[in-house]
Amino acid sequence: MAKGVMFVDNIRVEFDGEKSVLEVCQKAGVEMPNFCFHSDLSVYGACRMCMVEDQNGKIEAACTMLPYEGLRIRTNTARLLKYRRLILELLLSAHCRDCTTCEKNRACRLQEMAMRFGIHRIRFADTREPIPEDHSSPAISVDYNKCILCGDCVRVCHEVQGVNNLHFAGRGPDLRIVTTEGKPLSETNCVSCGQCAAVCTTGAITVKNEIGLAWRALHDPHKRVVIQIAPAVRVAVGEAYGIPSGENVLDKLVTALKIMGADEVYDTIFGADLTVREEGAEFLRRLESGENLPLFTSCCPAWVRYVEQERPQFLKNLSSALSPMQMFATVLKDRYRVRDAEDGRTTFHIAIMPCTAKKMEAGRPEFRRFGVPNVDLVLTTQEVIKMIKESGIRFQLLEKESPDLPFGMGSGAAEIFGTSGGVAEAVLRHCLPDKSKNALRLLEHSGLRGSDPIRFATVPVGGRDVRVAVVHGLSSAAKLLDQIERGEVQVDLVEVMSCRTGCVGGAGQPYALMSGKLRRAAGLYEIDRSAMFKRAERNPVLNGMYAEDLGARSHELLHHAYAPDDTQP
Amino acid sequence: MTKPYLLKGDVARPGPIDVPDGTTLRSIVETLGGGMANGRAFKAMQIGGPSGGLVTAAQLDLPLDFKALKPFGVRRGDGVLTVLDEDRCIVDAVSRFMEKTQTEFCGKCVSCREGTRRMSELMRALRACRLDREGLAVLTDHGEMVSVTGFCALGKGSFSTLRAALEAFPGEFEAHLAGSCPLCARETRPPIEPGDFAYERKRIVIDAEKCRGCGRCARACHAQAITGELRSPFAIHADRCVKCYTCMELCAFGAIREVELDG
Description:
The structure holds 2 protein chains of 2 kinds. Helix content of chain A is about 35%, strand content about 15%. By secondary structure, chain A is an alpha/beta fold. The chains are: A alpha/beta, B alpha+beta. The interface of A and B includes residues 45, 79 and 173 of A.
């Protein structure tokens, strides 16, 4: 990697390993305008916004320009500004400019750039043929008319997720984004991970908006609205209100939801504790018998769908324990059936998730009992932020309120479910015979935590060494599956999260770069450190329920063996 | 060394030519092209198609060499030399080259995809005398932007022809801005379209009268260009034929021959 000194707008900047001039500019504190550059993806060089001028007056795109010793570039000459304005005007002239009603209003990069460069007049008419929108997917909406062809979604789908479902098609004026075979999204092998929506620079790909359904339920006196909040949400919601990412604002969120009309607000960590106990028991059973190893976690619905579609031979390895959201919902709906019959109200269960795929999971037929879905509605973090804003609540000034009991408490192990490595750590905490603080500390430093796409750790459990792998990003998962199939790696437990950094980097969260996502993960570990109890089996409410009848009914309520025949909804 | 080009437009003998290194543009027009057609005077030569450039009579004594022609924004481009005579309207010709970018570009980078699209629209309006001076300024602004920020040579070269034409023939642009162009009004010939030229001047054909339908040629043709029913005349598909002459040498009846096309 090149090392040296260059000058950005006469500011001396040292570069060391930066792959492009654009990254050096960012280091120098210049926010380069761009659409198609994304630090987590490969370089594409199509938007032509990041042009810089060197000492000889030569103009080049910074994202594809290599830094070299003594290079002097200017980022804001008169020519560059003129060209950028022209490019922006061209982009806007071929864009559906219904900003006020757009899902991405005030969060759109194109809009932000237009504002930054003061584009007030578009001299060209939009002459494109309108393309029908695609609302077929339960999680993602696509409006091709808003696409500016930056290709971020295509690259994230191929490079990070390995789902290969979005492509460029056509050439020249016909260039457009299509799904595989041009089918509606719901009929393709899309796993609903939503990363395309997370990187989309405009409102072309967005997370399905179901705020209307939420309001209808909250305003319906015949409905008892019960809410669960996932761990990853609490460390990201605050970002919309100027609170640093990683700070736990669960208490304020509970207050806000109560103001908005929620009857009861609970915490998904209760469900996560259930998952840990069920999955831990399952893991120990499989370890004993040696059957269907390695055990794959099944908390991530996009991952489950990926296995169903791409690697059905691994379906038997998926844990049959439900995801925390479904654990919570089944137990809740089961308990509340009695109450519903008593007071004549129906329980409407809303899950607040960092995830788009949970919307898909909630709609799966196997997660319905007695004709109703266990989770009636999944709202993403972003949707909740919008609802709070719509209510006129000043989030920063809210009083704090704890989640309700009994389902509002859980272990520290459950809190870290929201980050990559967390589920594996939580399950191992449960399985470790040694319950001392030291054992927990050893686990913490065993290599489960971190940000590498694939991590391995070896943990002694009950006299044998358990080999654990932690993966995030589906393309990394595919790589690991290949290695397992070829027998190159031997593992017993594999945790897979579809999104990079796990749920904290989910597509339903506010937009963030890698650093922000890792700060959220650190926030979750922080919560775990100050948690009252760190292991799922210490959850007193759960222990009570298991002592009652849950232990006997666990198989009926808390497990679902994924089989090849339920791939088709 | 020679390089292959396609000479077309208002020359007496258009067609594929092999140009030896150092040949001047004048000798290409006058010797290889057999001089101007219909005795009209030379006006301009477009070299390289949509991403190439334009030279005028002043540059005719320069060699067809890209170092020499680089200052005039000329690239080899698609390797077509289009000669325009004095009665051709330059605005009309340039607009057709601009239009050609729309079937050539890939669509990846914004400046070329959106920029050349708008430039073609504006050029079309100018050709129809529906553009005002402000519109022409928008056109040149975008041309300059695309020529600097384009991702590849196609986008970067898309403005060269127009820029050279604007410099050399400002009067014709003025006429189009003012609302009527005398050259366009007088023109009765079909316009010269970029590309689209019957490149092949020779073709192998089967004489249906001599052919006895033995099928020997079809079996031997490795390009699978010959089809037909046994005992009835076979035919060669010109789009597949690679002119290897295998069939011609094989034919026992002398039914296969080479013909020269005119034009």
